[in-house]
Write a structure and sequence with these properties.
301 residues; mainly beta; Gyrase A, domain 2; Elongation Factor Tu (Ef-tu), domain 3; 2 domains; six-stranded antiparallel beta barrel; 4 helices; 11% helix
């Protein structure tokens, strides 16, 4: 059904935080999991904002619009509390944070609507518009398009919002939304393998725990694609028939599949992926069939 993932989609589920000022990059460098100090005008960053225990409070696709302006695209349902929390750390930094969602148009481009071939997190500018290449979904190219409100949209057939959400799931890169705030350290969603964590940069909240998970072999959960015949929702617990009373994972993101059923990204204990029956919500819930990741994990490279 990947041929249905083609066109230009509205993205009402996403919002924009603008960070302005000469210390914009320096400020974000001290708060997020990725390196913003070295962020150029032709690249973007996938990044997480963690609490002191290394648990993800939000995730972003961030990029510069100018040397002193960075935008962070994130889930709209947690934008307000995230903006409030980030703003608490500005202190003396010459950086101003604001909700700029209404000032921009955000669109998702897929399939033939994405011109050229570029690696994920590459950014190009076309006048006042910015285009960020995302990870593909089932081989279909995807990109994020952002421009000031009122800018003419790029050419392409209309892609339904639900199909874009399905493509996000099929890319196997989860976005933090309200049901999963503080549920995962970045590696539980494979962020270190898809450009979401830089282990060489300086400190940020939760950095010690994130680094320990990576280098001391303490990580016991990973994210995997999954499919079920019934509805799945972010935040649902996942159970294994070997121990039906204790959850072994969590649904991180889900969307209706155009071919029927529901696709999801699930974060599971590695021991639960070695066979047996997996279900969502409880032992009698929808059965999950795990799929293969569309990218290599850093540990396997």
């Amino acid at each position: 059904m990947t041929d249905s993932l083609n066109g230009v989609a509205p993205l009402p589920h996403l919002g924009v935080i603008r960070v302005e000022g000469e210390d914009a990059a320096k400020f974000l460098q001290g708060q997020l999991t990725q390196d913003f100090a070295l962020l150029g005008l032709a690249e973007a960053r996938l990044a997480a904002f963690c609490n002191a225990k290394g648990r993800m409070q939000a995730s972003f696709v961030g990029f510069r619009r100018s040397p002193t302006e960075i935008v962070l695209v994130m889930s709209r349902d947690i934008l307000a509390p995230t903006l409030k929390r980030l703003s608490m750390f500005v202190m003396r930094a010459k950086a101003k944070l604001s909700d700029a969602t209404e000032e921009f148009t955000l669109l998702g481009l897929a399939g033939s609507a994405v011109a050229g071939d570029a690696p994920p997190w590459t950014k190009t500018d076309d006048g006042v518009a910015s285009l960020v290449r995302l990870y593909p979904a089932d081989g279909q190219a995807r990109a994020l398009w952002l421009a000031p409100a009122g800018t003419p949209a790029p050419d392409g057939q209309v892609l339904e919002h639900g199909l874009w959400l399905w493509g996000e799931v099929r890319s196997a890169i989860a976005t933090i939304t309200a049901p999963i705030v503080e549920a995962f350290v970045p590696q539980m969603l494979n962020y270190e393998s898809v450009g979401g964590v830089n282990f060489k940069k300086g400190c940020y909240p939760g950095q010690e725990i994130v680094a320990r998970s990576q280098f001391r072999g303490t990580l016991k959960r990973r994210a995997f694609p999954a499919h079920a015949g019934a509805e799945l929702l972010a935040g649902q617990e996942v159970f294994h028939d070997a121990d039906p009373q204790q959850p072994c994972g969590l649904v991180a993101q889900a969307a209706a599949a155009p071919g029927g059923g529901w696709d999801a990204i699930v974060s599971l204990q590695l021991s639960a992926t070695q066979g047996g029956r997996l279900t969502a919500s409880g032992p009698d819930g929808p059965e999950l069939a795990l799929g293969e990741l569309p990218y290599l994990l850093l540990a396997d490279v």
